[in-house]
């Protein structure tokens, strides 16, 4: 089943994308929740017209995301965590702690847009990817240290 997303859905796509999903997921969850509409010929025409009219605004938003990515590129975070004597962290460092550290550094980023490549369970240096726009993402370095 092809659907048009009305909002960004993590792991599926961004607003105004046409994606294929299983029939049950589309009919029973996405469409009743107002997150998507069925992609037939008339809705595709309406979508194309809307995208044409919004192209200028979307370009401006993308340029702002690129500028913000340039500022974030040089950020290096230090996150403190309680550790055992062998350097293992009690629990793990996740996107919430990274978002809080970014706020302390003066950058406002949604925690849902932060992706970690691997679980952070030991002291060391790691990378996180921040998706600022569907075409703009930036990798930031962060270091986990013992408190």
Mind sketching the topology for me?
Blueprint: E1 2-5, E2 18-20, H1 23-30, E3 36-38, H2 41-73, E4 76-81, E5 88-93, H3 95-104, E6 114-116, E7 120-122, E8 124-133, E9 136-146
Spatial strand sequence of the major β-sheet: 4-9-8-6
Radius of gyration: 19 Å
Provide the CATH architecture of the largest domain. Answer: Roll
| N/C terminus separation | 51 Å
Q: How is the quaternary structure best described?
A: single chain
Query: What is the CATH topology assignment of the largest domain?
Result: Ribosomal Protein L9, domain 2
Largest pleated sheet: 4 strands, mixed
Which residues sit in consecutive blocks of at least 5 with pLDDT less than 50? none
* Overall mean confidence score, pLDDT: 89
What do we call the CATH homologous superfamily of the largest domain?
Ribosomal protein L9, C-terminal domain
Class by SSE composition: alpha+beta
State the helix count: 3
* Number of self-contained structural domains: 2
């Amino acid at each position: 089943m092809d659907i048009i997303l009305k909002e960004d859905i993590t792991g599926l796509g961004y607003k105004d994308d046409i994606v294929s999903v299983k029939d049950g997921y589309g009919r029973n969850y996405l469409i009743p929740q107002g997150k998507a509409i069925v992609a037939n010929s008339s809705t595709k025409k309406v979508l194309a017209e809307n995208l044409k009219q919004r192209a200028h605004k979307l370009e401006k938003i993308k340029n702002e995301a690129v500028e913000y990515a340039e500022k974030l590129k040089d950020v290096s975070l230090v996150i403190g965590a309680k550790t055992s004597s062998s350097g293992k962290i009690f629990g793990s460092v996740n996107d919430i702690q990274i978002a809080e550290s970014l706020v302390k550094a003066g950058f406002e980023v949604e925690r849902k847009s932060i992706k970690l490549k691997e679980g952070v369970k030991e002291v060391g240096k790691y990378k996180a990817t921040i998706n600022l726009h569907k075409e703009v993402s930036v990798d930031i370095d962060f270091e986990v240290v013992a408190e």
